Amino acid sequence: MSSTASNACGPAPALAIYPDLKAAFTAVQEHVKANGYAFYRHDKKLNRAVFRCDRGGKYRATSKNPDTDPSKQRLSTSLKKSRCKMGVELRLDHISGNWSLSVLEATHNHDRSADPKAYPAYRIAALKPNAYAAISTLGRAGLSTSQILSTLRIEYPEALLTAKDVTNILQKSRLEELDGKTLIQWLVEELQSKGFNP
Prior knowledge:
Structural class: alpha+beta
Number of domains: 2
Helix content: 25-40%
Shape: globular
Radius of gyration: 21 Å
Strand content: 5-15%
């Protein structure tokens, strides 16, 4: 796909050394956001993390059943995959404890996104802390995803989340609450803390 200079994706992050993985991830995300694309974590091991362009992978159309009447087909439901191979790798130096960034593939095969809000990572990152906390609280109260979205649109109209974003936030919140325990282990501890002995 050819790109004009005005809408071409920006360059790969520069080679760099970071004191820890969190600092590296933050710097990389800021760079890709400013340059019109997004990364997802492709692979992570103890001493290595690989990030790839979110347009990587094979394009596939969804919800386009030929037997469905055209008036009932949903529009714009195809994933925006273009087999882009842009990616970077972060490696831990066991001697210094620093993480070094190297580029696996420096170019894209697609245009930049019109708006950073097109990416879930940026929509979620733009959330105010109290809005993030409200999602977790409403989820624990048993509200459905659509009810949570409706509440957010009233209380936090600047939050441009989708139902999938809310689901992802709730899943992350539950994992943090479990703190590595199974659901049964967590439930037993909760009951014991309230005076029940199962």
